[in-house]
């Protein structure tokens, strides 16, 4: 494969995974293990989370819907309480790798994010660090276009904008469900579990030395 572009998810790839924060929250509150992830995964195309990331509901509605969905799985969790758990820490080694990749290939970011002001007084954009976002040739945010991964159209939009062949693209995400449509389009996919693992697989896929 002659690499033309490397496309990244943001949360859980360039930042640490929010799953760690979910686990801490559940332990502190005495909630069933993985109740937040199970709520997110149930009916994942049309649940509260999906609607919020497509900006189809406001924060009040999201809060109530998420509470009802989690209650149906065994314990009520308010949607508002989950939102602050989303902010992972930047992985500096991944940002350094992105800078090296940008020098050689086109770069893109496809992120399922939240409408502006979803997290307290913060804007949706301030979840992202400006100096990182400028490293991408193109960024697609679910809350701005009303589409979210794993809808195949969001990946198609990216390759059309970058003017690249999906067969010459590498795509990184921390969720398998989001990798599947990219793989079906012909992209080389990397499921991110840690910075070191992602960088090793990126080096193998692109032939670049990234550390």
Largest sheet report: 5 strands, parallel
| Average pLDDT taken over every residue | 92
Give the CA-based shape. Answer: globular
Report low-confidence residues grouped into runs of 5 or more: 120-125
Residue share in helices? 40-55%
Organism: Bradyrhizobium stylosanthis
Keywords: Acetylation, Hydrolase
GO molecular function, one term: hydrolase activity
Protein name: Putative hydrolase of the HAD superfamily
Describe this structure in words.
The chain has 211 residues and is of the alpha/beta class. It folds into 2 domains: 5-17 and 88-206, HAD superfamily/HAD-like (Rossmann fold), CATH 3.40.50; 18-86, no CATH class. Helices cover 44% and strands 11% of the residues. It has 11 helices and 5 strands, in the order βααααααβαβααβαβα. It has helices spanning 19-29, 35-41, 48-53, 59-72, 79-82, 92-102, 130-133, 142-145, 152-162, 176-184, 195-206, and strands spanning 5-8, 106-111, 138-141, 169-173, 188-191. The chain has a 5-stranded parallel sheet, with helices on both faces. The longest helix has 14 residues, at 59-72. Mean pLDDT is 92; it is low at 120-125. Pfam families: Hydrolase. One of its GO terms (molecular function) is hydrolase activity. Keywords: Acetylation, Hydrolase. InterPro entries: ACAD10-like (IPR052898), HAD-like_sf (IPR036412), HAD-SF_hydro_IA (IPR006439), HAD-SF_ppase_IA/epoxid_hydro_N (IPR011945), HAD_sf (IPR023214), PGP-like_dom2 (IPR023198). This is Putative hydrolase of the HAD superfamily.
């Amino acid at each position: 494969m002659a690499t033309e572009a490397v496309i990244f998810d943001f949360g859980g790839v360039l930042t640490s995974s929010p799953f760690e924060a979910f686990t801490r929250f559940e332990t502190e509150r005495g909630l069933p293990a993985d109740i937040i992830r199970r709520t997110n995964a149930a009916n994942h195309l049309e649940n509260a989370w999906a609607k919020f990331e497509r900006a189809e509901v406001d924060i009040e509605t999201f809060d109530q819907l998420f509470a009802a969905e989690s209650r149906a799985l065994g314990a009520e969790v308010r949607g508002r309480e989950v939102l602050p758990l989303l902010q992972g820490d930047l992985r500096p080694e991944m940002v350094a790798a992105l800078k090296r990749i940008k020098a050689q290939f086109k770069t893109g970011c496809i992120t399922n994010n939240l409408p502006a002001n979803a997290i307290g007084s913060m804007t949706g954009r301030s979840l992202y660090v400006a100096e990182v976002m400028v490293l991408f040739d193109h960024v697609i945010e679910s809350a701005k276009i009303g589409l979210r991964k794993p809808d195949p159209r969001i990946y198609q939009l990216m390759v059309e904008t970058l003017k690249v062949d999906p067969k010459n693209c590498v795509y990184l995400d921390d969720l398998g469900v989001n990798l599947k449509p990219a793989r079906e389009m012909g992209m080389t996919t990397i499921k991110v579990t840690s910075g070191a693992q992602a960088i090793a697989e990126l080096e193998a896929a692109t032939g670049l030395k990234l550390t």
